[in-house]
């Protein structure tokens, strides 16, 4: 089971230092065999987190990267720079990037390519908006979002998927267990047929995962892990999700 924490733009240096100590001391030693932790702090703290996770099994990742390799792109951080910190992962396609930064399939294809060229592994996020869920067009939306993985430049891309219904993120709402299961199975079927299938078809669930619902979500055979936002900002809650 993979436990990925997306701290988004939260916390400060002291917070990051303290929660990291708690995760190393209280969660890591109690993880079940075969489980792993991926921590995605704000980019400014990525080097610190990565350094402090050296010699542990904890991996770190960025929450985004530039679509460009380098150059005059003020404020951007390249995939190469992320990889240079020793971090292994980058989250791409998060709904907050799609929503607030107008990230579309074209841009995401470029970001996936730069991440791949820099040797980063990708957590690629997909998910439908509430309107799509109501209309029953979730599968069409996911198919379209996942279609970028067919791009010829992404052969051998090392990626996993996070299924995150947009309406479940930060809202306390979660799809029924059966719905999560069916959508994860649908995604896995699509991944099998993509031009660049992953080595292992790993799909995380994300969206209001908390200590009360984690056990049931994790019990689904099609769920390979969880991507946790809000609840990962509390080491106690994150621990109850992971252990
Ligand atoms: C997320 O934004 O990736 C997420 C899953 O957030 P939350 O757990 O707060 O819903």
Please tag this protein with its features.
243 residues, alpha/beta, TIM Barrel, eight-stranded parallel barrel, 10 helices, 38% helix, binds phosphoenolpyruvate
Residue runs with pLDDT of under 50 for 5 or more positions = none
Number of strands: 8
The third-level CATH topology is TIM Barrel
Bound molecules: phosphoenolpyruvate
Textual characterization of the structure:
With 243 residues, this protein is an alpha/beta fold. The protein has a single domain (2-242), classed as Alpha-Beta Barrel (TIM Barrel). The protein has ten helices and eight strands. An eight-stranded parallel β-barrel has the order 1-2-3-4-5-6-7-8, surrounded by five helices. Helix 2 links the parallel strand 2 and strand 3 (59-62). Helix 1 (13-27) packs parallel to helix 10 (235-242) and helix 7 (138-146) runs parallel beside helix 8. It is globular. The mean pLDDT is 98. Bound molecules: phosphoenolpyruvate. Phosphoenolpyruvate (PEP) binds at residues 6, 164, 169-170, 206-209, 227-231.
């Amino acid at each position: 089971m993979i436990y990925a924490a997306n701290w988004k733009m939260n916390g400060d240096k002291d917070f990051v230092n303290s929660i990291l100590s708690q995760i190393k001391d209280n969660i890591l030693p109690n993880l079940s065999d075969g489980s792993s932790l991926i921590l995605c702090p704000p980019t400014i703290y990525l080097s610190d987190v990565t350094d402090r996770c050296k010699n542990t099994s904890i991996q770190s990742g960025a929450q985004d990267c530039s679509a460009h390799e380098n150059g005059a792109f003020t404020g951007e951080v390249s995939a190469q720079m992320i990889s240079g910190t020793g971090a292994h992962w980058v989250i791409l396609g998060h709904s907050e990037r799609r929503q607030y930064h107008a990230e579309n399939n074209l841009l995401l294809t470029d970001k996936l390519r730069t991440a791949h060229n820099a040797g980063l592994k990708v957590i690629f996020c997909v998910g439908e908006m509430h309107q799509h869920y109501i209309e029953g067009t979730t599968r069409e939306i996911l198919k379209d979002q996942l279609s970028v993985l067919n791009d010829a430049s992404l052969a051998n891309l090392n990626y996993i998927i996070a299924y995150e219904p947009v309406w479940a993120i930060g809202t306390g709402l979660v799809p029924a267990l059966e719905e999560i299961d069916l959508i994860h199975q649908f995604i896995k079927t699509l991944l099998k047929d993509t031009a660049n299938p992953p080595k292992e078809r790993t799909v995380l669930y994300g969206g209001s995962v908390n200590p009360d619902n984690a056990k049931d979500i994790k019990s689904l055979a099609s769920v390979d892990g969880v991507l946790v936002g809000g609840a990962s900002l509390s080491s106690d809650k994150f621990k109850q999700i992971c252990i």
